[in-house]
């Protein structure tokens, strides 16, 4: 079975500071991994994904994440936070084979302090 | 092009009433998913439709929940005899799904259901 744990339901950073949102997964087989972002009153948007190949993946809006198999992690980072980054971020996992439905973490709400 | 459309955007209903939530997927997307987003619970998978295959209903929380997809396009999620714990945002997503091949999910803005 696949599952995702996001440490920290709320994260606050100052504008310009490093953003680090943590995600750990458990999966019996190598998974595909995703980060989605949900801005207020909007649907979820795909930020980035890891399928195969390079373990450091870059997404939209300057975000990136690194797949670390040894740590079963897929943490999301951005070097310098912007006010517009304030949103809720969800990590998700799916098996490489079989159905395409995703299993999501409980989300991390990012607040950016001016 | 048009994204995933859900209606209504908000629904308030009395406990015990039935509700229907609608999802129009992106044209050409063969896969459709329903998720429930409750406060502090993240996104909970409910049901998944793929083409003409039997749907994966493994996430439906009780037999009061059902969904259908007519003509491989529009889907309706029905909740019978609503309870207060059904209050949540119900999200629909669609994708160009091929088993084993990554295909990103495109989400609608959701229907916020409040059961009073």
Structure description:
- The complex is a heterodimer of chains A (114) and B (116).
- Helix content of chain A is 0%, strand content 53%.
- With 114 residues, chain A is an all-beta fold.
- In chain A, strands 2, 5, 6, 10, 11 and 12 form a 6-stranded mixed sheet that branches.
- The chains are: A mainly beta (114), B mainly beta (116).
- The interface between A and B is medium-sized, with 28 and 29 residues.
Terminal Cα separation of chain B, in Å?
A: 37 Å
How many beta-strand elements of chain A?
12
Order of SSEs of chain B: EEEEEEEEEE
pLDDT averaged residue by residue of chain A: 90
Largest interface (CB < 8 Å): A-B, 28 and 29 residues
Strand content of chain B: over 45%
Oligomeric state of the chains present here: heterodimer
- How would you sum up the global shape of chain A? globular
**Structural Rg of chain B:** 14 Å
Strand content of chain A: over 45%
General shape of chain B = globular
What's the SSE pattern of chain A?
EEEEEEEEEEEE
Radius of gyration of chain A, in Å, reads 14 Å
Q: How many helix segments of chain A?
A: 0
Low-confidence stretches of chain A: none
The count of strands of chain B amounts to: 10
Percent in helix of chain B: under 10%
Q: Kindly state the percentage of residues in helix of chain A.
A: under 10%
Number of helices of chain B: 0
Low-pLDDT segments, ≥5 res of chain B: none
Helix/strand class of chain A: mainly beta
């Amino acid at each position: 079975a696949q599952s995702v744990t996001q440490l920290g339901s709320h994260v606050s950073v100052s504008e310009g500071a490093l953003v680090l949102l943590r995600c750990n997964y458990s999966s019996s087989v190598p998974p595909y991994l995703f980060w989605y972002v949900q801005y207020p009153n909007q649907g979820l948007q795909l930020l980035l994904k890891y399928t195969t190949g390079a373990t450091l993946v870059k997404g939209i809006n300057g975000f990136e994440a690194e797949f670390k198999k040894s740590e079963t992690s897929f943490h999301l980072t951005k070097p310098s936070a912007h006010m517009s980054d304030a949103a809720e971020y969800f990590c998700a996992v799916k098996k490489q084979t079989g159905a395409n439905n995703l299993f999501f973490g409980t989300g991390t709400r990012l607040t950016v302090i001016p | 092009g048009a994204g995933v459309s859900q209606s209504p955007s908000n629904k308030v209903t009395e406990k015990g009433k039935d509700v229907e939530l609608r999802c129009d997927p992106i044209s050409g997307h063969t896969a459709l998913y329903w998720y429930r987003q409750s406060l502090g619970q993240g996104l909970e998978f409910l049901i998944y439709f793929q083409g003409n295959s039997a749907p994966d209903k493994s996430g439906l929380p009780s037999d009061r929940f059902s969904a259908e997809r007519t003509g491989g396009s529009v889907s309706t999620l029905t909740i019978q005899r609503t309870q207060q714990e059904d209050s949540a945002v119900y999200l629909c997503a669609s994708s160009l799904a091929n088993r084993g091949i990554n295909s990103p999910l495109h989400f609608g803005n959701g229907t916020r259901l409040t059961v009073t």
